[in-house]
């Protein structure tokens, strides 16, 4: 395995998988969700004004957009609102070592689970893609870099880990 020991440059290539089956050529990009913590406004005696305190492990709706060039069989496998969507994105991150000027690459993997909340079939125009999309509401996401888990969130099972540290271990013990 290789670490990014230099300057991260580009995603060389990536593939999407729906429940283990490759979705080759379906999209050009996927916007991954932000991790923006839910906060509580804190004010009171001894505090000048107020501040926002992040509540660890609590995040608002996370809904990445999965664009499709055109509708296909896999697209329709993902739109049943009663069925979970399990998507895995695997990519290769290219980097340069500033000491040796050599180029290397490391793997990235993002696992997302949830249910569809929006789907747009798109538009039909001669010689162009349809710009179809599916927007799942995520209830679980795991981000790995170079085979190591970096972030894991499972909203139903009270799991939130950052760089292997279980942020909610004490909370689960106390509740």
Structural description of this entry:
Strands 1, 2, 5, 6, 7, 8, 9, 10 and 11 form a nine-stranded antiparallel sheet that branches. The protein is globular. It has helices at 73-77, 169-174, and strands spanning 7-18, 21-22, 39-43, 50-54, 66-68, 85-96, 103-120, 132-145, 148-154, 159-162, 165-166. The mean pLDDT is 92. It has two helices and eleven strands, in the order E-E-E-E-E-H-E-E-E-E-E-E-H. It is mainly β.
Structural descriptors:
175 residues; mainly beta; nine-stranded antiparallel beta sheet; 2 helices
Question: How would you concisely characterize the structure shown here?
Answer:
The protein is mainly beta and 175 residues long. Helix content is 6%, strand content 48%.
Rg for CA atoms: 20 Å
Total of helices: 2
Quote the beta fraction.
Answer: over 45%
Mean pLDDT across every amino acid position: 92
What is the string of SSEs from the N terminus onward? EEEEEHEEEEEEH
Helix content: under 10%
Q: Which class best fits the helix and strand makeup?
A: mainly beta
Q: Describe the oligomeric state of these chains in a short phrase.
A: single chain
Q: Which segments are poorly predicted (pLDDT under 50) over 5 or more consecutive residues?
A: none
């Amino acid at each position: 395995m290789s670490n990014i020991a230099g300057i991260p440059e580009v995603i060389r290539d990536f593939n999407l998988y729906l429940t283990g089956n490759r979705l080759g050529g379906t999209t050009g990009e996927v916007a991954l969700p932000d991790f923006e913590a839910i906060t509580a406004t804190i004010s009171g005696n001894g505090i000048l004004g107020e501040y926002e305190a992040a509540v660890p492990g609590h995040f608002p709706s996370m809904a990445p957009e999965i664009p499709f060039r055109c509708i296909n069989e896999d697209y329709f496998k993902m739109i049943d609102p009663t069925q979970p969507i399990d998507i895995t994105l695997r990519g290769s991150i290219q980097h340069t070592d500033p000491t040796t000027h050599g180029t290397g690459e490391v793997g990235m993997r993002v696992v997302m689970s949830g249910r569809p909340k929006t789907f747009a079939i798109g538009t039909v125009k001669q010689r162009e893609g349809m710009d179809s999309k599916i927007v799942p509401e995520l209830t679980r996401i795991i981000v790995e870099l170079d085979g190591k888990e970096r972030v894991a969130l499972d909203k139903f099972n009270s799991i939130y880990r950052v760089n292997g540290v279980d942020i909610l271990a004490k909370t689960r013990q106390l509740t």
